[in-house]
Design a protein that fits this description.
Length: 236
């Protein structure tokens, strides 16, 4: 049903996902969680694979990997990082490959009009012991709250207020969304504010020190300081 490459015509704004690999980043946290919670072997399905960096980082953990992506221009990268590639619009997908052991939704559902439908497809696709790994931006992050305090709520090219985001989540609302789709949450993490992307001109030593401090603060007060919320969930 899903050959090496399937190309469906896209219908929505493409995902501007970029891979972030530094202390406290959502992708580094996701990689650690996948290696910890995903059953070894079996199939990994990365929905919104972008350039395939995350899938490549955990490829040795699985027997088979499949990447779904919207942007056809990513094909050159994806073919070398997944066993199968599907180019499609996740809003239009009616079914997903069956008997999947781990599914990743990294920075995806905030771009969708109907994330609940996709989450239900994910649940049907997973094996009984399968695991969902999901991340979304935290609209309750301190940077957004401070902006609102001063009357500022401006959409941007990236970040929490990315102009392509159609939905916004807090720690409470994303938990409710996932649980209502038939999952039980078994782990919650928060990524720290990506100061490396904001203050890239600073010396690397200072950036690494700042990232370490922010990671520690985020662990203590996730609801306020988490830049992105990362959940691990299993079917009920």
């Amino acid at each position: 049903m899903f050959p090496h490459l399937i190309h469906y015509p896209p219908a929505v704004v493409p995902n501007v996902y970029t891979f972030k690999d530094f202390e406290g980043s959502s992708h580094r946290i996701l990689i650690g969680l996948i290696r910890r919670f995903a059953p070894r072997g079996g199939t990994l399905l990365d929905l919104g694979a972008a350039g395939g960096e995350l899938g490549a980082a955990v490829r040795e953990h699985f027997d088979r990997t499949i990447g779904f992506e919207y942007d056809a221009d990513r094909l050159g990268q994806l073919r070398g990082r997944f066993d199968q590639v599907v180019i499609t619009d996740l809003e239009t997908v009616k079914t997903l490959p069956p008997n999947v052991n781990a599914i990743v939704l990294a920075d995806i559902i905030e771009h969708l009009r109907n994330s609940t439908n996709l989450l239900r497809l994910v649940k049907r696709s997973l094996t009984d012991d399968g695991v969902l790994f999901l991340s979304v931006p935290n609209i309750a992050n301190i940077t957004v709250r401070l902006g609102l305090l001063f009357g500022v709520f401006e959409y941007r090219d990236r970040g929490i207020l990315d102009f392509t985001h159609l939905r916004f989540f807090t720690m409470r609302t994303i938990r409710r969304e996932v649980e209502n789709a038939g999952f039980r949450i078994i782990a919650v993490r928060g990524s720290s504010v990506p100061i490396r992307l904001i203050l890239g001109w600073m010396p690397d030593l200072l950036l690494r020190m700042g990232e370490r401090v922010l990671t520690w603060i985020t662990r203590i007060w996730r609801g306020l300081f988490a830049y992105q919320i990362i959940l691990v969930a299993i079917p009920k």
